[in-house]
Design brief:
single chain, alpha+beta, about 100 residues, 2 helices, about 25% helix, 5-stranded mixed beta sheet
Length: about 100
Amino acid sequence: MEIRYNRDKETGLPHIYDHGVSEQEVESILRSPLETRRGDRDSRVVIGKTPGGRHLKVIYVPDEGRQGLFVVTAYELRPKPLAAFRRRFRRKHRP
């Protein structure tokens, strides 16, 4: 699967760098998401945990006509959104 990244116009680097996130972290989240849902328009929102233990939210759009996706942004979940995610996750995975 081809993964393209939104790039900063000034630096040409992936926008995710502005949030302290690497391509490897994004790819690990996309391989093993804990939660996936629809976002605005045609986007998808994925939340997952990196091998380093960080919880990230990745927003992407599937490429039309290609076997890939375009990552718009990714960032670490902060305390309140992280707590909300954990509550949703526990509710979904109760025995």
